[in-house]
Structures are given as C-alpha cells and as structure tokens.
Amino acid sequence: MGSGVQHALEQLKTTGVRITPQRHAILTYLMEAMNHPTADEIYRALEPKFPSMSVATVYNNLKMFIEAGMVRELTYGDTSSRFDANVSDHYHVICEVCGKIEDFSYSSLHEVEERAAQSTGFTIHGLRMELYGVCGCCGKNDSQQ
Fold this sequence. Notes:
The strands form two sheets. The protein has a three-stranded mixed sheet with strand order 4-3-5, with no helix packed on it. A two-stranded antiparallel sheet has the order 1-2. Helix 1 (about 5-15) packs across helix 2. The longest helix has 13 residues, at about 55-65. The protein is of the alpha+beta class. It has helices spanning about 5-15, 20-30, 40-45, 55-65, 110-120, 135-145; strands at about 70-75, 80-85, 90-95, 100-105, 130-135. The protein is built from six helices and five strands; from the N terminus they run H-H-H-H-E-E-E-E-H-E-H. One of its GO terms (molecular function) is zinc ion binding.
C-alpha cells in the first residue's frame, strides 16, 4: 500500500471523517487504478470483498472524497463520471473509441495560466485540458479490420 493512501487517510481523519474499511478500500483502489474508474467499476472491483456495499455507498463516499479535495470527478461528454485520485496539476488524454483516460503532465502549461492572468487580470485557479485521440490498443484494432 502506497504512502499516498496513508497520507490521504490521515488528512481525512483531521477533518473528522471516520475511516471505514469500505472508505479505505475505495480510496486505495482509486489511487492504485490508473484508469480513472467509474463508480460502477469501483463497485464491481470491491464487491467481492464487501458484499453488503451498494453502488450508492460508493457514490456517497466518492462525493465525500471530492468535498475533502482528495478526488476529482471527471465529466467528459455524456458517459458516466470517472474519478481521479490524482489532484496534482495534470491533464487528460481521452480515447474517442474506448473512453480510456491517460494522465499527461506538461510544465509549460503553467505559462498559459500566467499569460491568461496577465492579459485578463483574472486570478487563475486552474486549467482543465482534454486531448482527444485514439489509444494504442484501439488504433491497432482499427488497422486490423
């Protein structure tokens, strides 16, 4: 188990949130899953361990993590929300075929924020960027048809 999970759970405790085994499992799964899972995927992955857990439980806990600033909800298009436990500055590359989302970091995008602030006088709080394309797997499948 990564120190990131431990740190996140300590953070939660300070806000007075009780760390239930389910919450622990949801957060751990999110931090280890690099595929930005949907609530359904999280539920399906954890259901064997927590037979009494419902999709609603997963949603409610995700909402709580979001309010605590530990998880981001990604809403792209009309597909169900995906969740990302990486709240550092990063951007997303999204496959138009299978919907897979990969993280991508690029430091000079900070310059874009600074430039925007200078030219508009806004205080910039963040930047959300999505790049669209076809992932390697889908690209291979496509060329074989």
